[in-house]
């Protein structure tokens, strides 16, 4: 009887233990396997100071008719004593604010290390007129779009030749030469993009530089594209190639330079603005404006076409130098 | 023998407990109480008391031996960890920073150079990236469990491939003569400076702090063990006094042997731990702390060098970089070469093997700052190409590149001396503890055996 009870107890215990083991093994959450590579979304880096979307769509204003955009009449290419040109001459160098990132207009040629382009040709012509040569007489200062007005106001440079449109807004702060090139805003997209004009890019990201005239026009488009602002035009190309924007919209000459660097891109749509490029000169140096306008007159007579041929022919339709309009 | 002694102490007089009435769990719970009652009863008489004392002393000896052996073994592990992990990791994270920063400056230099990229710059960049990758793998191997370090390692290991990708895109565009190359290079540099280098710097800081913490651990006084050993010595002495009074015999060989063993363990342990602590401290003062100072100087120099190059890449819009250079340069050393991180390093290393390297580094810094002044002068007066040559061509007369390379080389030499000093001192600390852990255990067992034999001899006299 006693043996039986003991055996019974043992059996009960065994059953109990088995039950506990089974229940403990079977129930309760085991948690999840450890994630081997806990990475969220990875993305390409952004260019320095890129704003997505643009914090302010303020730009250089449009080429409106609210003011007289004609320049001071040419005053000849002689360097008169006491003039701004004489000061530059005695300094030994013309300080020019330029772009080193915009292919065809102002860019650093990696094979030579020199700055080249249509705008750079203009700077060289001015230096030639002052010094008789452009060798060692120019000090280039590469500036982002947003610094074009400030460097002139602070007299850090003598001229700014950097795809800069003559606008009434800018005329309040600086002087402009007569127009030396006429461009117009268009749109650059991937060849496989369905967009054919800015109006097709509603809700899509469209890139332009800060303080450019292109940025407010993107923001003003009725289809409401999202403006993205960067420091330099080549940053727009980088973002387009990295898939961070859907299009770049600015002057056709700048877009042609980008398309020339990447055959998978194309410029689409019609020109929807007229940009008259002028050379920026500090507000208080009107003598320089007359001098530069004379230089530009000589340029229109011949060198302009040489520059156009070496940089733009084949990438843009043939064009003639724009005639200067003076007050 | 313990049970024998207890039986001798309680000769049958008490009635046996009612075992049948209490059984199972209640009986089990009753056992300790019964034992305590038994011990108390037997302790009332001398033989019983002796047995209790013997058991107590044996237990205390064994406990002391166990704790001491574990504590000493632990400390030896800590010291070995310093040598095998902590210091190499701090060095690895320093290497990650250096390689990446140098890669950034080299990529910018290559961009500035005209025409085909100079093969030595290409080689240098490739080596930098390879070293950064290898050092990162090393640094990552130990970041598990340290969330801060793991987060930095994650940033580094995710962004480094992205960085190299962007640099290669820049290179391809450059080869084609497209200015997009310059834009990609600026983007890569921005990524490096805003994300990658801060992570590398944080990782270095974390690893250096962990090294210092573990050095503190390895020099802390083992209070608990010390107290245990002292208590054991006291207990042995008191027991001997008690026995002398009870038995009128002056010496008990067993207890004397036990006391001798414990005192020997105490002296050996004290000397070894003090020497070990001093050596670990030396490893920190003459080694890792100097290395940290020199590494911070090196990081400042690398950052300034990148600023110098990027000022030229920006070509006129580099005012912010130049300002940054000035700040870093004065943090490194004043223009006359005194004070700053290098001046402090000079004070720290005075009279040591690395002093010559540090002094040479200060001279190089002076030469570099002078060359930088000339670079800025050339650039500011329009001689851009002359400025570039002076900045990046190591063969040019009095070039910034050559002075910087010499400075970096001297800092590396001083860092290597400091690392060796750390290793020598810390290895010495490890050797100071040689055999101490097993020795401590053996001595504790000897003490326990001595106690047992000594007291058993006395107990025999009561039979």
TrEMBL record, chain A:
<feature type="signal peptide">
    <location>
        <begin position="1"/>
        <end position="23"/>
    </location>
</feature>
<dbReference type="Pfam" id="PF00497">
    <property type="entry name" value="SBP_bac_3"/>
</dbReference>
<dbReference type="InterPro" id="IPR001638">
    <property type="entry name" value="Solute-binding_3/MltF_N"/>
</dbReference>
<feature type="region of interest" description="Disordered">
    <location>
        <begin position="50"/>
        <end position="80"/>
    </location>
</feature>
<dbReference type="InterPro" id="IPR018313">
    <property type="entry name" value="SBP_3_CS"/>
</dbReference>
<protein>
    <submittedName>
        <fullName>Glutamate ABC transporter substrate-binding protein</fullName>
    </submittedName>
</protein>
<keyword id="KW-0813">Transport</keyword>
<feature type="domain" description="Solute-binding protein family 3/N-terminal">
    <location>
        <begin position="93"/>
        <end position="315"/>
    </location>
</feature>
<comment type="similarity">
    <text>Belongs to the bacterial solute-binding protein 3 family.</text>
</comment>
<feature type="compositionally biased region" description="Polar residues">
    <location>
        <begin position="68"/>
        <end position="80"/>
    </location>
</feature>
<keyword id="KW-0732">Signal</keyword>
<dbReference type="InterPro" id="IPR051455">
    <property type="entry name" value="Bact_solute-bind_prot3"/>
</dbReference>
From TrEMBL, chain B:
<keyword id="KW-0472">Membrane</keyword>
<feature type="transmembrane region" description="Helical">
    <location>
        <begin position="432"/>
        <end position="455"/>
    </location>
</feature>
<feature type="transmembrane region" description="Helical">
    <location>
        <begin position="255"/>
        <end position="279"/>
    </location>
</feature>
<feature type="transmembrane region" description="Helical">
    <location>
        <begin position="50"/>
        <end position="72"/>
    </location>
</feature>
<feature type="transmembrane region" description="Helical">
    <location>
        <begin position="220"/>
        <end position="243"/>
    </location>
</feature>
<protein>
    <recommendedName>
        <fullName>Secreted protein</fullName>
    </recommendedName>
</protein>
<keyword id="KW-1133">Transmembrane helix</keyword>
<feature type="region of interest" description="Disordered">
    <location>
        <begin position="1"/>
        <end position="24"/>
    </location>
</feature>
<keyword id="KW-0812">Transmembrane</keyword>
């Amino acid at each position: 009887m006693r043996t039986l009870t003991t055996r019974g107890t043992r059996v009960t215990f065994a059953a109990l233990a088995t039950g506990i083991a089974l229940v403990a093994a079977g129930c309760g959450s085991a948690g999840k396997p450890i994630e081997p590579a806990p990475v969220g979304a990875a993305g390409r880096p952004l260019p320095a100071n890129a704003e997505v979307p643009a914090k302010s769509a303020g730009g250089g204003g449009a080429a409106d008719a609210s003011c007289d955009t004609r320049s001071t009449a040419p005053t000849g290419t002689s360097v008169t004593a006491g003039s701004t040109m004489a000061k530059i001459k005695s300094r030994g160098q013309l300080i020019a604010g330029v772009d080193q990132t915009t292919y065809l207009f102002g860019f650093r040629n990696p094979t030579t290390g020199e700055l080249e382009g249509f705008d750079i040709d203009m700077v060289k012509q001015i230096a030639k007129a002052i010094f008789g040569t452009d060798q060692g007489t120019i000090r280039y200062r590469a500036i982002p779009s947003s610094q074009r007005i400030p460097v002139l106001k602070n007299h850090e440079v003598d001229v700014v030749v950097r795809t800069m449109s003559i606008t009434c807004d800018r005329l309040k702060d600086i002087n402009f030469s007569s127009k030396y090139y006429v461009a117009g805003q268009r749109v650059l997209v991937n060849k496989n993009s369905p967009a054919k004009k800015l109006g097709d890019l509603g809700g899509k990201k469209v890139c332009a530089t800060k303080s450019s005239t292109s940025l407010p026009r993107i923001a003003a488009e009725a289809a409401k594209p999202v403006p993205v602002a960067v420091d330099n035009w080549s940053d727009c190309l980088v973002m387009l190639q990295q898939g961070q924007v859907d299009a770049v919209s600015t002057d056709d000459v700048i877009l042609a330079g980008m398309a020339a660097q990447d055959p998978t891109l194309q410029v689409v749509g019609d020109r929807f603005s007229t940009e008259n490029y002028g050379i920026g000169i500090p507000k208080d140096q009107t003598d320089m404006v007359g001098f530069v306008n004379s230089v530009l007159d000589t340029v229109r007579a011949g060198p302009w076409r040489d520059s156009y041929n070496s940089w733009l022919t084949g990438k843009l339709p043939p064009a003639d130098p724009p005639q200067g309009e003076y007050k | 023998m313990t049970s024998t002694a207890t039986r001798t102490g309680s000769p049958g007089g008490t009635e046996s407990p009612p075992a049948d009435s209490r059984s199972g769990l209640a009986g089990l719970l009753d056992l300790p109480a019964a034992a305590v009652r038994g011990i108390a009863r037997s302790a009332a008489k001398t033989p019983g008391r002796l047995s209790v004392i013997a058991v107590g002393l044996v237990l205390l000896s064994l406990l002391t031996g166990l704790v001491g052996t574990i504590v000493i073994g632990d400390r030896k592990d800590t010291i070995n960890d310093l040598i095998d992990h902590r210091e190499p990791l701090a060095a690895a994270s320093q290497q990650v920073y250096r390689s990446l920063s140098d890669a950034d400056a080299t990529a910018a230099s290559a961009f500035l150079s005209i025409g085909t990229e100079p093969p030595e710059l290409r080689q240098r960049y490739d080596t930098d990236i390879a070293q950064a990758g290898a050092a990162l793998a090393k640094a990552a191997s130990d970041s598990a469990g340290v969330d801060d370090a793991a987060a930095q390692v994650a940033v580094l290991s995710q962004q480094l491939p992205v960085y190299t990708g962007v640099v290669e895109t820049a290179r391809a565009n450059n080869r084609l003569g497209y200015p997009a190359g310059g834009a990609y290079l600026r983007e890569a540099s921005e990524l490096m400076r805003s994300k990658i280098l801060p992570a590398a710097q944080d990782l270095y800081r974390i690893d250096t702090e962990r090294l210092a913490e573990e050095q503190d651990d390895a020099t802390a006084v083992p209070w608990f063990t010390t107290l245990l050993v002292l208590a054991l010595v006291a207990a042995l002495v008191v027991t001997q006094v008690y026995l002398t009074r009870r038995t009128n015999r002056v010496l008990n060989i067993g207890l004397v042997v036990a006391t001798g063993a414990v005192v020997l363990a105490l002296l050996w342990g004290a000397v070894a731990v003090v020497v070990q602590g001093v050596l670990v401290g030396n490893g920190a003062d003459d080694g890792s702390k100097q290395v940290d100072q020199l590494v911070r100087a090196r990081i400042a120099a690398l950052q300034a060098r990148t600023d110098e190059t990027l000022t030229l890449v920006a070509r006129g819009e580099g005012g912010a970089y130049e300002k940054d250079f000035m700040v870093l340069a004065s943090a490194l050393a004043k223009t006359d070469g005194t004070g700053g991180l290098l001046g402090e390093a000079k004070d720290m290393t005075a009279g040591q093997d690395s002093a010559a390297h540090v002094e040479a580094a200060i001279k190089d810094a002076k030469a570099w700052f002078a060359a930088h002044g000339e670079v800025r002068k050339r650039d500011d007066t329009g001689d851009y190409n002359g400025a570039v040559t002076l900045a990046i061509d190591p063969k040019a007369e009095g070039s910034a590149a050559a002075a910087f390379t010499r400075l970096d080389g001297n800092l590396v030499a001083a860092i290597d001396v400091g690392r060796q000093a750390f290793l020598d001192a810390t290895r010495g600390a490890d050797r100071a503890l040689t055999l101490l852990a097993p020795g401590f255990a053996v001595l504790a067992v000897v003490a326990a055996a001595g106690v047992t034999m000594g007291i058993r001899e006395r107990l025999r006299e009561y039979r």
